[in-house]
Amino acid sequence: MPERDAERSRREILMAAEAEFAQKGFYGARVDAIARRSGRNKRMIYVYFGDKEGLWRQVISEVYRRMEEAEQSLIDLQLSGRELVRRMVYTYFDFLQANPSFVSLLSWENLDGGCRLEPLPEGKIGRQSLQFFVDALERGKAEGIFRPEIDPWHTALSMITTCFANFSNRYTLSRLFGADLCGAEMLAARKEHTARLILGCICTEGEE
Amino acid sequence: MPERDAERSRREILMAAEAEFAQKGFYGARVDAIARRSGRNKRMIYVYFGDKEGLWRQVISEVYRRMEEAEQSLIDLQLSGRELVRRMVYTYFDFLQANPSFVSLLSWENLDGGCRLEPLPEGKIGRQSLQFFVDALERGKAEGIFRPEIDPWHTALSMITTCFANFSNRYTLSRLFGADLCGAEMLAARKEHTARLILGCICTEGEE
DNA sequence: TTCACAAGTAACCGTTCGGTTACTTACATG
DNA sequence: CATGTAAGTAACCGAACGGTTACTTGTGAA
C-alpha cells in the first residue's frame, strides 16, 4: 500500500466533508475542520475540489448517487400494486434512517434556496423512479386496486414528502409532541404508520 | 412621535433579524446585516438582546407565538369530525404559506440538532392544540366517523409533518419532480390533496 | 541511481465577523 | 432652562476563516 494515494485522499476528504457539511451546513462548515477530520492537509482540498463550493457539490452528488442506488434496487424487484407502495415507503424510510446526512444535506440545500443546486439532467434516475411509481399507481387504478379519484402525481409527491418529514423535523417535533422521535422503535412505528397512511388513502376497500 | 423609541427599535431589530435568520440561518446570518436591515446601530442589538444567540431565541419565540395564535383561532371554531380535520389541514397550510420564515427558522433549528431549542413549557398551546386534535380523532372513532384502527397520536403527527414537508423541501422536490412547487395554484392543489390524503386514510367510507 | 513530477506540508495573508469601548445626542423631569 | 439618563453612533479589536504561497518528500520510469 503506497503511502501517497491521490484517489484515497480524495475519497477520505469527501467523507469528512460529508460529515462536516451535514452537521454544520455550508456556511457553518469549516474547511480547516474538514482537513482535520480527513487527516489531510487543507491545501489538498483546494487541489482536488477547487474551493469550498466545489467540495459541497461533490458531496451532494455523492449522496444523491446513493439514493439513486436504493431506488434502482427497488425498481429491480419488479413489484406492483399494494406491495410496491408498501415497499416504496419502506425503502425510503430505511434509506433516510440509514443516511441521516442525506436528510441534512438536502435540508441545507433547501434552506439556501437551492442556490447551489444544479438542474437535474433529463432522464436521470430520480425522474425515472418517480415515473415508475406514477405508472404503477395508474396501472393500479385501471385494475381497480386503487381508487379511481386519486391523482398519481400528487400521491407520489406526498409519499416522498411524508417519509422525509419524519426525519427532517425530528427535534422541533419531538419538542412539540413531548416524545423522542429519533429512537429505533419509534421510527419503526412511524414507518408502519406512514405506509398505512398512503395505502389507506389510495386503496379501495379490503384487506391491508 | 419621538425620534428615540426603545420599544420600536427593539421591534424593528427583531423583524430584521427574522428576515436575516430565516434567509441565512444562525451561522450564515450577519449581525451587521441585521443592524443595516433594521436601520439601527449594531450596538443596540447587544443592548436589547445580549448576543446573537439571544436575538435568535427571541425571533424563534416570536414566530412560535404567531403559530399558536393561528392554532387558537382554529380551536375557537369548535369544529369536530371531518370538518375539523379538513380545517386543521387548511389552517396549517395557510399559516405555513403566509409565514415562510416560520418554516425556514424551524428547519434551521432542526439542522442544528435543536441545540438552541428550549424545552416547551408544560401545558403550552402547542401541546394543547395537539391534545385537542387527538381528542377529536378519538371522539370521531367512537362515533363511527373515523376508522377504528387509526392511531390518533400518529395521525396527528402525520398531519403536521405532511403539511410542513410541502414547504420545507420545495427546491429539491421541485428539481426532482421537474415542476415548480412554489406557485400559488400548485400550493392550492397540494393543500387539497393533503386534506384528501389525511381524510381518505382515517374516514370510514362515504362522501367526502 | 537519478530525476522529474505528483503528493503533501506549514506558515502565512487579507477579509470578515461577533462583540466592545469611548463617545455623543435627544428628551423627560424638576 | 439646566441636567441626569436612556438612546444612539462610529471606530475599533482579536479571533477565525477561506484561500494561497513557498517549500519538502515520496515514487516510479528511464
> Roughly what is the average pLDDT of chain A, rounded to an integer?
89
**SSE order of chain A, as H and E?**
HHHHHHHHHH
The assigned structural class of chain A equals: mainly alpha
Number of helices, where a helix is a run of at least 4 consecutive DSSP H or I residues of chain A: 10
Q: Between the first and last Cα atoms of chain A, what is the distance in angstroms?
A: 55 Å
Largest interface: A-B, 55 and 55 residues
Query: How large is the share of residues in beta strands of chain A?
Result: under 5%
Task: Give a description of the structure.
- The structure is a homodimer of 208-residue chains.
- Chain A is mainly alpha-helical and 208 residues long.
- The first copy, chain A, has two domains: 1-50, Homeodomain-like (Arc Repressor Mutant, subunit A); 63-202, Tetracycline Repressor, domain 2, CATH 1.10.357.
- Helix content of chain A is 75%, strand content 0%.
- The first copy, chain A, contains ten helices and no strands.
- The first copy, chain A, has helices at residues 6-28, 31-38, 42-49, 52-75, 81-98, 100-111, 125-143, 152-168, 170-177, 184-202.
- In chain A, helix 5 runs antiparallel to helix 7.
- The longest helix of chain A is centred in the N-terminal third of the chain and has 24 residues, at 52-75.
- In chain A, 36% of the residues are buried.
- Chains A and B meet through helix 1, helix 6, helix 7, helix 8 and helix 9 of A and helix 1, helix 6, helix 7, helix 8 and helix 9 of B.
- The structure holds a DNA duplex (30 and 30 nucleotides).
